[in-house]
Amino acid sequence: MKTTVLRYFPLLLFILFAPTTWATSKTLAPELMLFKDYLGTWQSQFPVSKGQSEVEDVARWERALNGMAIRTLHSINQGEYGGESLIFYDKEKQKIVFYYFTTAGFHTSGYMELIDEKTLIAYEEVSGNKEGITQVKSTNELLGNSMKVSTSYLKKGTWTTPETRVYQRSDKEVIFK
User: Fold this and answer.
1) Domain parsing of the chain, residue ranges
2) Which residue has the higher pLDDT, 30 or 10?
3) How far apart are CA 82 and CA 171, in angstroms?
4) How far, in Å, are 30, 37, 110, 117, 136 from residue 56 at the CA level?
5) How far apart are CA 139 and CA 120, in angstroms?
6) What pLDDT score was predicted for residue 142?
């Protein structure tokens, strides 16, 4: 009896745990594979204006919805401000689209274009921003273990000068209050 159980034990383990393994597979939808190198946590320290303390932004990119979406979470200065987005491929629009929600009460929606295998441009429409920002354009460039992000805002009808930040891989946590 003991020999019979031992002989079938590997099969029993396979039957018990194979569905779990399949369900937690780390694959992404083919249209989202370009994000595989973005997955993980990133951190940037940058000045906002002269005489002010640097700002810390911690962002985590992760696989979501069984690989059909990418979820990003980020927090500035340990939760003073933060946001969450879902990025997915819209089959009807034939584009990578996203929705971004913030702790400041506004949200954005937009789409991304792949420029090359390491560069993306995001175009956003902003709803409910109290500072008069109605659109955002940002370029993300993946540079090995760093990511350069340049962002311009359409604020009160005028595009701002791009702000550039460099993010490094990090073990820090995204914090919401």
Assistant:
1) 27-169
2) 30
3) 18
4) 33, 22, 25, 27, 20
5) 6
6) 96
